Fold this protein.
Amino acid sequence: MPIRINSKMPVFQRLEEENIFVMPEHRAATQDIRELQIAILNIMPNKEDTELQLLRLLSNTALQVRVTFLRLDSHTYKNTPEEYLRQFYKPFSEVRERRFDGLIITGAPVENLPFTDVDYWDELTAIMDWSATHVTSTVHICWAAQAGLYYHYGIEKHPLPKKLSGIYRHTTLYVDEPVTRGFNDRFFAPHSRYTGVDKEDIMANPDLTLLVDSDNAGVYLIQDKKARRLFICGHPEYSRMTLDAEYRRDLKKGINPELPVHYYRDDDPEKGPVFQWKAHAYLLFSNWLNYCVYQVTPYRLDKIGEDVNP
């Protein structure tokens, strides 16, 4: 079923070229259907790449999804033209009275900073508070997962000895949970980060369930007891070439990065990467949309949050 976005967005044509059903506003207006309202707070530097990655994943269900991209009021975006943001993104201040079936908060390249030193920390925590009463289920990705675990549960992040970058094998600990339904016992997923959280801290919290873990990459998928908050500590949304772009970027900066683990064919960047996490990524987001959002969200948007205990 279709993704409904502004047809003037550059990613609209890219999605059509990939045979992903995207619906322009004029066609959507003729349909009598309760579409899911999904907000995406995109704080990654390269907006278009992240838009494309997430829209691909949200398109793979029988549900019609209308996506609203959000921007922070308190942050100055250095990598995205202001005109682009004005045309395709809504400031949080404009939507704070609205309700959404789902919210996705992306990662951000600020993990080496203390949370409270991030210039938009106060607004981000206000959004996380708002989501408790205005959103049915929220996905936090990578740095946002660490930020959410810290803000909601007091779980600290810690620096890693070196950057964790590559494709790592994971173990599904609970195959009968809705969000992990259909997962293989073992599967691969990407990571790209300098910090992490301790498994012991997750396991010690009675309000959290660790669903997926990795011997080498650490905790990966965590949810609260009602699946209203989902924390993904990696980057399943990454496309085939994302880690390659990051690796070559760091080479140009003189950082001298190590090769992403289990990513390039024969560990040779000239042979290109092996795309071995795509099926898992689609299933994860399909399960979230179906079981954590569609199956439990009220038909009337104004009823979202009425029975919620923040």
User: Anything to note?
Assistant: The two ends are 32 Å apart (CA to CA). Residues 3-240+278-303 form a domain with the Rossmann fold fold (CATH 3.40.50.880). Residues 278-294 form the longest helix (17 residues). The chain has two domains: 3-240+278-303, 241-274.
